[in-house]
Automatic annotation (TrEMBL), chains A, B, C, D:
Residues 26-45 bind DNA. The lineage of its organism: Bacteria, Bacillati, Bacillota, Bacilli, Bacillales. It comes from Paenactinomyces guangxiensis. Pfam families: TetR_C_24 (PF17932), TetR_N (PF00440). GO terms for biological process: negative regulation of DNA-templated transcription. This is TetR/AcrR family transcriptional regulator. Transmembrane segments: none annotated. GO terms for molecular function: DNA-binding transcription factor activity; transcription cis-regulatory region binding.
Length: 196, 196, 196, 196
DNA sequence: GATGAATGAGTTTTCATTCAT
DNA sequence: AATGAATGAAAACTCATTCAT
């Protein structure tokens, strides 16, 4: 297993980065939150950026794994897509901190953001491949599976993020209870027309 | 009409903020890009934050206006929703800089971000009201119009953002040509099931 | 004339760099000594290194000018060499701080030191050209004017440095009084054999 | 005999200190170069400073021994002085790393430098005593043997240093071949007038 | 209205040193 | 004897903001 202190630092870093964003996050704060000296972080990570990138990669890895596991149980593309949405939203609900970071830091021209987008691109490819299979097997019908993948990703992600922040502003914490609502909405968007 | 210098500063600020994000953007750089002295910015704006907030508010205003104008021409909610998506995507395509800022700075706990989210909330209300009318007039059918509004907003925004950055990485600039692809995709998502 | 603050910073920097050497010198200390804020130094100089290099260049420039002026008054190479030694030693005596920096920072593989050595090389060329002329005019006789230039430079410089530090340890300050002693010694080394 | 590890550390330390100077040299780098753990250095030396001082003392010791051995074979002061110059220059040529350190770290107000200068003072006394004997025995003639000792030390040292760095910049390594040139030059400076 | 030199609080990062194993 | 993870004090540098001109 990974070095104990590294784990502690990772935990603390997610909290702090999610709370403040990359630039506003202070290494001091991360160190304090982790209960280690600032030097200790630098003993394990070359820089703030490297720490952040490590974090993001791990986060995307977890999301991918989680979604892949959900898909693996299903046979037909439409069931797989359903499972994908379900897993994606639940993952974001359970890992709100990561979700915040994901959208906050996904876009931008900094190197770390570019690197990060590569990971997102991979995740989008996963979605796209499900769509593609559906098309090939005659289940789905769409002209632009790549754009559709982005749109679905955006819908599923922003629903959760918006909910997180709106609940935060009302200081309620019962987000898990609202998961079905969000899943249902995105499922409808994808599988049924809004129009009667 | 607004003071000439203010306009110049606004223009420059959008560029710089979009390129670097709020924190990494330097007032020096904005001043240089605007061709004014740094002090001049502070003569017109109290702070970096105020400049940014002014910018974002104006941006959201423009987006709202643009969408509202699109809707106004239509009668039925479904036509209105169609027009809304169309206008939203075209606006983001035409104002890529603003689009970047929008998603980059929409989430976070800083005061400026909270303020900004208020504007987004208003925009989401606009979408929601179209959905609501559709329900009332028996055109639409959905359990959670609020969540649906978020999902639609996310789908339409992320499609464009993802496209912008993916084109940037390939150094092509022909994003306007791809607008129909994106509009079509989101329209399908909203109006037709993916499933045959 | 040069900007007032720049001048003040230069003055302070010579003091501090000479006292502590490049690495041990703190920008804080220089700022305090100059009576300006640390930021002011960085407003005028890009980095500690740039400040230092500027300083050294100016120092070598002054030394060169001073020696050149001494030489200019003389006709024959031997008179010129005499004047050169005289001027060099007096300059070091008057500008002890600079003399310290000169020897302390002349050697090393850092970029700033390499740059600095280029200036010293130029100064050595000046000495060498006097020697060369002496040879051509039949006044001097030597096999390796380049090495001789280094040797003379070393003799004249180290004599003064050693004296500065030995006086410092005895807390006496009367170095100017000892200048003739040093000049005489180096003159003898160059013009008369030690051997009777 | 000295502990094996101590020897290894010394070797590595000379390299690293000579390459980077005292301040820029990193204990990590020395440890790596020596192939031991950082803690091991601290097991054998109390501090970076102590390691450095030990090094310098040993270096000066070796120089002194080498020169003393050269002198011991000669009888007359002028032969002794000749041998001294010869030994000094050859020692610097053979121990370039040490030579660099010697001049780089000889001057300055830090405690380690003061300590080091004590050793140099002793070496200068050795030179001075040869001069003094020459005067007493009627071979030499000079007003200020102490200053003359400094001047000779400076000439002999700087000649080599300047050559080392100028060859380094041209990436040639044949310094040993140039030793006679340098010895000859300093010998002339000391024993024969430049003037015909 | 406009300017840009000056400021100093705030941040990342480095590295000698320690100490439990 | 030897190790190397952990530490925290120290330093270079940044940049939003101010203000005299």
């Amino acid at each position: 297993m990974r070095h104990e202190k590294v784990e502690v630092i990772f935990q603390a870093a997610v909290e702090v980065f999610a709370e403040s964003g990359f630039d506003q996050a202070k290494m001091d704060e991360i160190a304090q939150a982790a209960g280690v000296a600032k030097g200790t972080i630098y003993y394990h990570f070359k820089s703030k950026e490297e720490l952040f990138v490590g974090l993001m990669n791990e986060g995307m890895e977890k999301l991918s794994d989680c979604v892949r596991r959900g898909i693996a149980l299903k046979k037909s593309p439409s069931e797989q897509l359903e499972a994908l949405l379900h897993a994606h939203i639940l993952f974001f609900v359970k890992n709100g901190k990561l979700a915040k970071l994901l959208l906050n830091e996904a876009f931008g021209t900094k190197e770390r953001q570019r690197q990060f987008r590569t990971k997102i691109r991979e995740y989008l490819n996963l979605i796209e491949s499900v769509l593609q299979q559906g098309i090939e097997q005659g289940e789905f019908q769409m002209a632009h599976p790549r754009e559709m993948a982005s749109a679905i990703f955006g819908a599923a992600s922003v629903v959760v993020l918006q909910k997180i922040y709106s609940l935060e502003e009302n200081q309620s914490e019962e987000i898990e209870a609202t998961a079905p609502t969000m899943i249902e909405s995105v499922q409808q968007l994808v599988f049924h027309p809004l129009i009667k």
